[in-house]
Amino acid sequence: MNKFSWYEAKSVEDALEQVNSTVSEELYQATDKAAVFKSGGIDVFDWVKEGLLKPQKIVNIRNIPDLDKISYDPKKGMSIGSNVTLAEIASNPETKNHYWALHQAVNHAATPQLRNMSTLGGNIAQRNRCWYFRSADHDCFRKGGARCFARQSETGENENHAIIDNGSCVSVHASSIATALMAFNASVVIINGKGEKKEVTMDDFFVTAGKDIAMENILQAKEIITEIILPAPTKNTKSAYIKQVARESYDWSLGDVAVVFEVSGNTCRSASIVLGAAAPVPYRSMEAQQAIENKTINSENAFAAAEAAMKIARPLAKNGYKVPLFIATLKQAILEIS
Ligand SMILES: Cc1cc2nc3c(=O)[nH]c(=O)nc-3n(C[C@H](O)[C@H](O)[C@H](O)COP(=O)(O)OP(=O)(O)OC[C@H]3O[C@@H](n4cnc5c(N)ncnc54)[C@H](O)[C@@H]3O)c2cc1C
Questions:
Q1: Radius of gyration in angstroms for the set of CA atoms belonging to the chain, rounded to a whole number
Q2: What integer is the mean pLDDT of 48-59?
Q3: Domain boundaries in the chain?
Q4: Would you say the CB of residue 125 lies under 6 angstroms from ligand 1?
Q5: 3-class SS at 5?
Q6: What sections of 10-50 are H helices per DSSP?
Q7: What angle in degrees, to the nearest 10, is found between the helix axes of 299-309 and 322-337?
Q8: Ligand 1 midpoint to CA 122 (Å)
Q9: Beta strand pairing status for 295-296 and 267-276?
Q10: Which residue CA neighbors atom 9 of ligand 1 most closely?
C-alpha cells in the first residue's frame, strides 16, 4: 500500500476543492489518480490494498453533514442522501412500504456488517468485480491493456461474466441495488467543482463498455453524488426483486432481476424490467417490457417475457447457465407481482 494523506471533508464544496487542488483532468475512474473520495471505504480500500490505486490523498466524504438523510413524500417520492448506509435503507419503513423491490435488493446485498459500512453513493459508483480487472497482474482492456482475459475461450474464467453487451469488456456491474433503483426510474443528483447541480436518470448514469471502456458511469473527478431520488409510486405500482447467488451469505449476484409494474387488476399496464449481472451495466430489457405490457400476468405471459429478455444473450464459454437462470428468475419475479 502506498502512503497517502487523509482529508476530512466538511462540505461537498470543501471535498471538491481538495480534488480540484490535486487532480488536473484525469478521469474519475483512472487508477493512478492523485486524490480519491472515500465514503464507506469498502471498495476504495480494496483498490488501495491491492496496489491498483495509489492515491496521494484520500478525501473522506463520509462525515459531510446532510448527505445522510432519507425522506419520503407521497407526491415527490423518496430522496436518499449519498451517505445513507445500506443498513439504514434496509430498515427504513417507507422503503419497505413503497419500494418493495429496493427493500429486497438492499436486504440481499453483501452482509449485515458490510451494509452497516456501505453507502448508497459508494454502492452505485463502485467498480466491477471481474477478477482480472481486480488483479494487478492482468493488464486488461478496461485498464488500457490489449486483451480481455475473461473472454479467452480455453483459459478465461468467465462463469460470473456478462451474457449481454459483452462485445468488449465482459465484466458485470457490481451493484445489485442499482438493478432495483433503475427499475424504479431513480435518478442521481451530482454536483461538480463549479457548484453546478445536475440530475441524471440511472439509465444515463451508467456507461456501457462499448461506449467507453474506461468508464462504468459518467462521474468525472470533480463530481460528487449527493442524492438518489425515486419517483413517487402510484397506488397501482407493484414491484418484485430476486437475486440468485452461489452461496446464501455475502455473495455477489450471479443474476438478479427487478420488476416494477403499473397494474390494473391482474393486467400489466406498463413495465420496467432491469437485469443485474447480465451486462457490464444494469440492463433494462425493452424486449421483456414490450412482451408483458398490456398482458395478463400469468405463467404463460411471464415465461414469454422472460424468454424475450434472453433473445439477445450471447453467453461465453462458461456462463451459458445464466440464460435459463434469468428466464426462471424473471418469470418468478413477474409472477410475484400477480
Ligand atoms: C464481500 C462483498 C460482497 C458484496 N456484495 C454486494 C452485493 O451483493 N450487492 C451490491 O450491490 N454490493 C455488494 N457489495 C458492495 C458493497 O456493499 C459497497 O456498496 C461497495 O463496496 C461500495 O460502498 P462504499 O460506501 O464502501 O463506497 P466506497 O468504497 O467509499 O466508494 C466506492 C467508489 O465510489 C466513489 N464514491 C463514494 N461515494 C461517492 C459520492 N458520494 N460521490 C461520488 N463518488 C463516490 C469512491 O470514490 C469510490 O470510487 C459487496 C462488497 C463486498 C466486499
A1: 20
A2: 88
A3: 5-63, 237-337
A4: yes
A5: strand
A6: 12-22, 42-49
A7: 140
A8: 4
A9: antiparallel
A10: 109
For ligand 1, say whether the CB of 206 is within 6 Å of any of its atoms: no
Kindly state if the Cβ of 224 falls inside 6 Å of ligand 1.
yes
Question: From ligand 1's centre to the CA of 109, what distance in Å?
Answer: 11
Instruction: Taking residues 245-270, report their average pLDDT.
Output: 94
Among 207, 223, 208, 127, smallest CA distance to 175 is for: 127
**What is the phi/psi pair of residue 101, to 5°?**
-65, -35
Q: Which three cell numbers stand for residue 321?
A: 447457465
Residue 110 class from Cβ within 10 Å (0-12 exposed, 13-18 middle, 19+ buried)? buried
Residues 6 or more apart whose CB falls under 8 angstroms from that of 324 comprise none
With a CB cutoff of 8 Å and minimum separation 6, the contacts of 109 are 86, 115, 118, 123, 176, 177
Distance 126 CA to ligand 1 centre (A): 5
Ligand 1 atom 14: residue of nearest CA: 110
* Å from CA of 175 to ligand 1 middle: 8
Element (H, E) at 201: strand 197-201
> How far apart are the C-alpha atoms of 42 and 62, rounded to whole Å?
12
Report the alpha-carbon distance of residue 93 to residue 90 in Å, rounded: 8
Confidence of residue 31 (pLDDT cuts 50, 70, 90): low
The per-residue pLDDT for range 157-211, each reduced to its tens digit, is 999 999 999 999 999 999 999 999 999 999 999 999 999 999 999 999 999 999 9
What is the pLDDT at residue 23? 52
CATH class of this structure's domain 237-337? alpha beta
Q: Above 70 in pLDDT, residue 26?
A: no
